[in-house]
Amino acid sequence: MALSARLRFAGSLPREGGVVLASNHLSNADPVTVTAFALAKGRIPRYLAKASLWKVPVVKQVLDGGGHIPVLRNTAQARTAYTGAVEAVRRGECVMFFPEAGFSDDTSHWPSTRVKNGAARIALETGAPVIPVVNWGTHELLPPNARFPKLFPRRTVQIVAGPPVDLSDLSGFDRETMDEATKRIMHAITELLAELRGEQPRPADEKRPRLPAGASSSISPLGTSGCRVPR
Fold first, then answer.
1. Which of 83, 147, 178, 190 has the greatest count of CB atoms below 10 A from its CB?
2. Residue 199: what pLDDT?
3. What would the pLDDT profile of 31-67 be if each residue is shown by its tens digit?
4. Using an 8 Å Cβ cutoff, are 222 and 85 in contact?
5. 130 and 17 in contact (C-beta within 8 Å)?
6. Mean pLDDT value across the chain
7. pTM
8. Parallel, antiparallel, or unpaired for β 155-161 and 94-97?
9. What per-residue confidence (pLDDT) applies to 42?
10. Are strands 226-228 and 114-116 parallel, antiparallel or unpaired?
11. Which H, E and C letters describe the chain, residue by residue?
12. Which residues form the Phospholipid/glycerol acyltransferase domain (predicted)?
């Protein structure tokens, strides 16, 4: 898929040590493009993916080989994914999150306001930096409901990483603290995307049109609770 697009990278990632990446989510192509970006920056990203993917031949070998983390959704074992992510970060791994819990539902492709707190919680527990990452163009390469990428005309996909999100004044795992951390992470992602696009999203007090529900991602954002993030 990456060969069918022009990839443009900007920004950097810490070369070593545990790190949490948090990205907007526009397409099933995002894990491919973010992985290409991270590898180019010297890191191997680990994803949290739904456990049923481990039952698919070949896919299972890819997931195991990549050190990815299975998520047993809606089961008593769901927390093992959280534990696995924390352990991976503490080992010095790079763990990737899409906090929106699915593709953006905004018709102008700005990040959704309903997000999960998983990335924030893991960052607060481990003390690892959170790096905001944005994809732009993957929604044209592989639209959310499409089965195959659009090969022609060749699309340009841009991936940019910003500076770490400052969470240094936050501690604890109460809902208010995690919501504040998540708010800061999503604000950093939105600002980075605005800079990349050269435009600003609608003000918070202006209603933003939404796409119909239905598109979902196989990558799990991992979160113990959702919050609506103010603009």
1. 178
2. 94
3. 889 999 999 999 999 988 777 777 776 667 767 777 7
4. yes
5. no
6. 83
7. 0.84
8. unpaired
9. 95
10. antiparallel
11. CHHHEEEEEECCCCCCCCEEEEECCCCCCHHHHHHHHHHHCCCCEEEEEEHHHHHCCCHHHHHHHCCCEEECCCCCCCHHHHHHHHHHHHCCCEEEECCCCCCCCECCCCCCCEEECHHHHHHHHHCCCEEEEEEECHHHHCCCCCCCCCCCCCEEEEEEECCCCCCCCCCCCCHHHHHHHHHHHHHHHHHHHHHHHCCCCCCCCCCCCECCCCCCCCECCCCCCEEECCC
12. 19-138
Which residues are paired to 204 by β-bridges?
A: none
Task: Say how far apart CA 94 and CA 88 lie, in whole Å.
Answer: 8
Q: Which residue has the tokens 């539902």?
A: 105
pLDDT tens-digit profile of 164-174?
Answer: 999 999 999 89
| Per-residue CA distances from 168 to 81, 107, 149, 219, 225 (Å) | 25, 34, 41, 28, 22
pLDDT of residue 21: 97
User: CA-CA-CA-CA torsion for 203, 122, 74, 210, nearest 10 degrees?
Assistant: 10
Domain ranges of the chain: 2-46+91-228
